[in-house]
């Protein structure tokens, strides 16, 4: 969740995580709110480092900073979930889904061209939605979960 202000005297999520006073022109303040920003920023700091992200945001036009903050946060969360592939694993899973759906579409078009669609639909079980969802969904354990921004992770102590 992006915020334009941090509130009355409370530091932004990044400054709260870094345990420092939030300066008036803090580059993180508009993008990391006091309530949830610290949790999101923790992943960013662990993966990229606060200084690197600060420099990145400072060198971008203000109009692009919000999207950059969301993107960096998503990439950091993905890298923590899957240290080897990061967000590429999610992209790969989506590409696999597209290929599966394209194959199903081609099969359906071929069946329609051959005139077998009516008989194929008549023989099809009524509860096919669960089977279709299982076919399209990525196999468990091969990719990270498809959760998108914001991702809340519980700390294990």
UniProtKB/TrEMBL annotation:
Residue ranges annotated for the LOB domain, each copy included: 10-112
Pfam families for this protein: LOB
GO biological process: hormone-mediated signaling pathway; positive regulation of DNA-templated transcription
Transmembrane segments: none
Taxonomic superkingdom: Eukaryota
Annotated region (Disordered), positions in chain: 124-157
Cross-referenced PROSITE patterns: LOB
Biased composition (Low complexity): 124-144
One Gene Ontology cellular component annotation held by this UniProt entry: nucleus
Protein family per UniProt: Belongs to the LOB domain-containing protein family.
Protein name: LOB domain-containing protein
Organism: Aegilops tauschii subsp. strangulata (Goatgrass)
């Amino acid at each position: 969740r992006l915020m334009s202000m941090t509130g009355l005297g409370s530091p932004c999520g990044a400054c709260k995580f870094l345990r420092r006073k939030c300066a008036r022109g803090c580059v993180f303040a508009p993008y990391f709110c006091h309530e949830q920003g610290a949790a999101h920023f923790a992943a960013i700091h662990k993966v990229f480092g606060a200084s690197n992200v600060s420099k990145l945001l400072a060198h971008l036009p203000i109009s692009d900073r919000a999207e950059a903050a969301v993107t960096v946060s998503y990439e950091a969360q993905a890298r923590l979930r899957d240290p080897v592939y990061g967000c590429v694993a999610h992209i790969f899973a989506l590409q696999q889904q597209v290929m599966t759906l394209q194959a199903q579409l081609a099969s359906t078009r071929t069946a329609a061209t051959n005139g077998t669609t009516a008989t194929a639909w008549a023989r099809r079980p009524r509860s096919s939605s669960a089977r279709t969802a299982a076919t399209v969904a990525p196999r468990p354990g091969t990719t990270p979960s498809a959760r998108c921004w914001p991702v809340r992770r519980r700390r294990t102590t």
